[in-house]
Structure to design on (642 residues):
């Protein structure tokens, strides 16, 4: 559990033709919630489940400062943008210049490739434009800031006048968040005999070729990818691999990342997590949460899958969630490659959500910088639209790869690396997918069913997928069709009877007895219907998540405690949790009278026709924050009969 302070942001809610306001004018809301308090949603949201992420390869996004492009070594820069292994000029000023473009699209958090100072030389003809060959974790890459600007975080700690600080300021002014990409597994390859040269704010502290202090492992390349020891200790593509057993290394890397958090970074994306043992990550995340309790962290376990025990164990026990490669691959097969099984491939992934402790916090995506872009698999914009709508409306936190909204792709060599990282060259706010992302991002902020709710399949064939997201009295119905025009005789929607308007097309649909009869789906058609119920409000909101309890039909989970909000131990007045999947129950619990006080609580199972089953443990104890939002992450303790 993490007891988090209130958000640092309390300014007036941003306004750039707000997507949430546009969506709220379309969808049904309960009478008392006609005007959704978006400021409340932002300031109370310590998690990322309501966010829409946008992943930027900084060097390939936008050159906002032409004077810094050449850098210290002109050989590393290609102004013609023909050499895919060199820098092309994108920088942090370029990101700042395009923040309104992103915000207007509904993006609420940007994930940037690593910003650390990199080796300033070529390796096999390639520069470190991607940011994964770090030289100094306590300095900003000079190519991303103004020429002559001080790159040292230490030396600018008081003034905070770097382009990076300006980016943080401009993001937070717009109520947007920054995800920093970090690398703890390795430093740099062997460039002119300087493999793994590492600096601490300009002072050399480690060298792979002169490693008496054992900062690095020296076991050569991974030979057997099924051997866990090799994967965690041997080298990846010739990169100097850190020795996590070295306390000096651990102290250095943790201190460095804390400096970035202190400058305003809101979340961390962690590279190559499968290549280090889980104990290291447990120590690392624990230190990060102690330093900044509301930081959100997710990791890249390359090609993780819900049937892969090691990646599932990592997601559940490391202290961070992960990128959902299993869903990504299924979407690419079903919609990009037109696999015969179609949507059943996607269903197979969702059916295994119970294996995760936090399936609704997985980061979902359809492509990234390490694989061909989706349109290199299938250039049809309609298929890209289906894939995007799917990740924007299904469980998890959606992440859009830069340029997707402009249909950006280069199919040279099948679109593989490095051709999946072209320069962003269009900024059209009228593309269909730009507008759809905008609308669905607004819907995600308004309808908690999309960010926190359960997911229920309602109709499926290889070509058609209908599902419902549900949380409390909020509902969202989604229908996707990868095939030709068709009619579904009837489909359950869980929506109240009456007329509902599609968020995407504004077409009207009549719901009767909770169903739509003779539902007509156009070729590659999309339907999104939504009803927003009452939002939970209180001086302090506890987001309680309980894992590890298996229930039968008709059984319910509640939380009871020694405070009025939890019924003062009266189980008839206990606070109910919502079913998310076989392994997860969840609730937002408002605290007013008990805010700021120490409480005791435990969970119980209510069963029809028999006595409640209470957890078999001493009561849990927690000091409720005086205001803001708090996370509880608990595991069910096998119960005893009451």
């Amino acid at each position: 559990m993490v007891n988090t302070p209130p958000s640092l942001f309390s300014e007036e809610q941003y306004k750039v033709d707000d997507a949430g306001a546009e969506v709220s004018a379309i969808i049904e809301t309960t009478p008392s919630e006609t005007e959704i308090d978006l400021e409340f949603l932002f300031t109370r949201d310590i998690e990322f489940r309501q966010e829409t992420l946008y992943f930027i390869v900084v060097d390939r996004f936008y050159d906002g400062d032409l004077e810094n492009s050449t850098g210290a070594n002109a050989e590393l820069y290609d102004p013609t943008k023909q050499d895919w292994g060199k820098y092309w000029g994108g920088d942090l000023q370029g990101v700042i210049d395009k923040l309104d473009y992103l915000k207007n699209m509904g993006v609420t958090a940007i994930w940037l490739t690593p910003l650390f100072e990199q080796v300033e030389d070529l390796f096999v003809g390639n520069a470190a434009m991607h940011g994964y060959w770090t030289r100094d974790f306590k300095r900003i890459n000079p190519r991303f800031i103004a020429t002559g600007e001080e790159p040292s975080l230490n030396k600018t700690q008081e003034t905070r006048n770097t382009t990076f600080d300006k980016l943080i300021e401009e993001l937070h002014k717009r109520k947007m968040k920054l995800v920093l990409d970090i690398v703890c597994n390795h430093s740099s390859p062997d460039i002119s005999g300087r493999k793994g040269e590492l600096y601490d704010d300009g002072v050399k502290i480690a060298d792979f070729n002169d490693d008496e202090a054992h900062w690095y492992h020296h076991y050569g390349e991974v030979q057997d990818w099924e051997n866990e020891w090799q994967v965690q200790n041997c080298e990846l593509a010739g990169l100097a691999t850190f020795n996590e057993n070295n306390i000096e290394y651990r102290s250095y890397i943790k201190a460095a990342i804390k400096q970035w958090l202190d400058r305003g970074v809101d979340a961390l994306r962690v590279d190559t997590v499968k290549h280090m043992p889980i104990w290291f990550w447990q120590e690392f995340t624990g230190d990060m949460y102690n330093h900044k309790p509301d930081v959100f962290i997710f990791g890249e376990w390359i090609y993780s899958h819900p049937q892969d025990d090691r990646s599932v164990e990592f997601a559940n026990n490391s202290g961070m969630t992960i990128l959902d490669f299993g869903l990504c691959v299924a979407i690419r097969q079903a919609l990009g490659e037109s696999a015969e099984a179609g949507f059943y491939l996607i269903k197979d992934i969702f059916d295994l959500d119970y294996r995760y402790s936090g399936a609704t916090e997985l980061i979902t995506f359809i492509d990234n910088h390490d694989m061909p872009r989706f349109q290199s698999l299938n250039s049809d914009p309609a298929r890209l639209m289906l894939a995007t709508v799917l990740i924007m409306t299904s469980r998890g936190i959606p992440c859009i790869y830069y340029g997707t909204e402009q249909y950006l792709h280069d199919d040279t060599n099948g679109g593989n690396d490095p051709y999946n990282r072209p320069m962003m060259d269009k900024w059209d706010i009228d593309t269909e997918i730009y507008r759809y992302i905008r609308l669905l991002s607004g819907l995600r902020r308004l309808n908690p069913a999309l960010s926190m709710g359960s997911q229920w399949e309602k109709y499926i064939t290889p070509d058609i997928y209908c599902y419902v997201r549900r949380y409390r009295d909020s509902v969202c119905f989604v229908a996707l069709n990868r095939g030709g025009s068709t009619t579904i005789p009837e489909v359950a929607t869980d929506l109240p009877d009456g007329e509902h308007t599609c968020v995407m097309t504004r077409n009207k649909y009549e719901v009767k007895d909770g169903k739509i009869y003779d539902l007509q789906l156009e070729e590659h058609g999309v339907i999104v219907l939504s009803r927003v119920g009452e939002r939970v409000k209180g001086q302090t909101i506890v987001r309680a998540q309980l894992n590890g309890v298996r229930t039968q039909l008709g059984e319910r989970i509640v939380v009871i405690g020694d405070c009025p909000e939890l019924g003062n131990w009266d189980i008839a007045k206990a606070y109910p949790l919502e079913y998310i999947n076989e392994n997860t129950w969840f609730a937002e619990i408002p605290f007013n009278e008990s805010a700021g006080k120490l409480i005791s609580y435990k969970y119980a199972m209510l069963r029809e026709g028999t006595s409640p089953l209470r957890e078999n443990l001493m009561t849990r104890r927690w000091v409720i924050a005086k205001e803001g939002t708090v996370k509880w992450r608990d595991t069910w303790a096998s119960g005893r009969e009451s």
Summary: The first strand starts at residue 28 and ends at 29. The two ends are 27 Å apart (CA to CA). The longest helix spans residues 247-262. Confidence is low (pLDDT under 50) at residues 1-15, 32-45.
